[in-house]
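Predict the 3D structure for this chain.
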Amino acid sequence: KNLKNRSKLLKYNNIDCYRIYDSELPEYNVVIDRFADYLHIQEYRPPKTVDPKSANHRRQLIRQWVPKHLGIPVKQAIYKERFRQSGKSQYEKRAEPLCIHVHENGMGFEVNLTTYTDVGLFLDHRPLRRLLLESCRGKRVLNLFCYTGALSVAAAKGLARSVTSVDMSKTYLTWAHRNFENNDLNPKHYQFIRANILEWLESDPSAEFDIILLDPPTFSNTKSTEQTLDIQRDHCALIDACARWLIPQGFIYFSNNLRGFSLSDSVNERYLVEDLTRTSIDADFDRKPPHVLFKLSRK
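Done. Predicted structure below.
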């Protein structure tokens, strides 16, 4: 049924990476994503109402039946247990890397299916990448918390005048370099900055960007500083810091995946706010919105 529902998505998007199943049934509390010729299957803790023995039996069924039904060898199905993450645990290494390349609307991305909990590409932000492809021509773009640079690639492929990508992680900035190279984009023509973003924003702000991409983690701390980021608590100050880097007519795409997130009254009072959440979710994520997305500009 889900594969049939995905047919329209696949028809209108040139993609080989998408979500197949998203925990629709509590007895099968798993998420199944397809990345080219591989499956990435993540199990979440079953509800307390589900018997543990039954849950284990269903896990084994999923491992055996899903690859077979989709015509994918069992050895190309990557299986992970994924319980609620905190702090940096979603970024900790788990296994030796299995890296493959996937394709999305004329772009190519490297994903690592095994080493970390997350694979290096957030599938739910496909609509935002599509929007950037269509709307960045001639724009100066700043991507904060850039991760592996997928949004930066979309901006660059959309003929942005400049793209600046900032992240604290050397690993992810190096990965972003590779993603640029995989898309025939010379990294030397773009700017990559390794920095604590909270400190960098305050360093020497100048109004030079047309578009700022702000997709921070829900919570973050670093060994090098006592600063922490709690996105519900700190998003207003973070947005204000970003706004100092915007030209007067510029805007911020602000997103996060905190469940129950509420945009503060202060943001609504100081900025023109357009809630793009509904339009930023494709059919493979429409069961339960995985993120919020707002377009913010000065009043």
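Residues 85-89 have pLDDT under 50 and may be disordered.
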